[in-house]
Write a structure and sequence with these properties.
It is a single chain. The protein is of the alpha+beta class. It contains 2 helices and 4 strands, in the order ββββαα. The strands form 2 sheets. A two-stranded antiparallel sheet has the order 1-2. The protein starts with a strand and ends with a helix. Bound molecules: zinc ion. Zinc ion binds next to strand 4 and helix 1. Keywords: Ligase. This is Carnitine-CoA ligase. Pfam families: Gin. InterPro entries: Sigma-G_inhibitor_Gin (IPR019700).
Length: 60
């Protein structure tokens, strides 16, 4: 099932994405995350964005 949602990382609205731990991530962010090494500062940014999105979901 496809649904249009807002990406938790780049805030882009798209139906081309996946739910990762119930957090919506567009396919381009997903690809970038996969290709980002864990010691890249960008990786930390992705994790922080996901944590933020996860917290927002819990307390909303
Ligand atoms: Zn995105």
């Amino acid at each position: 099932m496809k649904s249009t949602d807002c990406c938790s990382i780049c805030s882009k609205q798209t139906d081309d994405g996946i739910y990762l731990l119930r957090i919506y991530i567009c396919s381009s962010c997903e690809k970038e995350m996969i290709h980002t090494s864990t010691d890249d500062p960008k990786y930390k940014f992705y994790i922080e964005q996901m944590n933020k999105a996860h917290r927002a979901m819990i307390y909303s």
